[in-house]
Amino acid sequence: MSEPASISGGIAARYATAIFELARDDNALDALESDIASLSAALAESEDFRKMIASPIVSRREQGGAISAIAKAMKLGATLSNALALMAERRRLFVLPQLLRALRERIAAEKGEITADVTSAAPLSAAQAAKLAEVLTSRTGRTVRLNSAVDPGLIGGLIVKVGSKMIDTSIRSRLAGLQNAMKEVG
User: Considering the entire predicted model, what is its pTM?
Assistant: First the structure.
């Protein structure tokens, strides 16, 4: 991990711990989870939002006003709204994507859930996703949520990452393995 990414991750982790503990103490983890999903969607959809949190040109006051307006419009809970205002005041909004990821991980761990990153050549049907989640749940002993992505370059098969384990059954990786084996023979 590069030094700036490490620093950002550390900042995000500290804020995430504080926000998570406050929400847990208030029995508001479900509301926080909903707020995180809404804020993540807004961040993914709005390039202006992403630019605003990352720009060193936008002043503290402008960031604070913008994030307060966003929090009010989205009807975010007080804990998250106050944390975002504090982050704007301290010029820490640039870690918002890492903060949201860290909060999702903490909430999932609290619920005994784990997220599996699944990359497939074509979108998985609801039945396929349910079956994959069921198999992964039986293997890990924890409830598994799927984070799906599509990469047509895989040709077929799946790449599944659960925690530190990765299973690559893609045709692309098998063809690469065959190509390496052919190079060794010839």
Answer: 0.72
Task: Please write the tens of the pLDDT for every residue from 114-144.
Answer: 989 999 999 999 999 999 999 999 998 899 9
Whole-angstrom Cα distance, residue 16 to residue 5? 16
* Eight-state DSSP code of residue 2: -
- Final residue of a domain: which of 81, 109, 137? 109
Which tens digit of pLDDT belongs to each residue from 40-49?
A: 999 999 999 9
d(CA 122, CA 25): 42
Q: Compute the distance between CA of residue 5 and CA of residue 124 in angstroms, rounded to an integer.
A: 32
Domain span at residue 127 reads 113-185
In terms of Cα–Cα distance, which of 83, 82, 88, 45 is closest to 66?
A: 88
Those residues with Cβ within 8 angstroms of residue 24's Cβ, 6 or more apart along the chain or in another chain = 110
- Which domain CATH number covers 9? 1.10.520.20
Residue 119: which CATH number? 3.40.30
Q: Spell out, as residue ranges, where the chain has pLDDT lower than 50.
A: 1
Residues 6 or more apart in contact with residue 157 via CB below 8 angstroms: 120, 121, 168, 169, 170, 171, 172, 173, 174
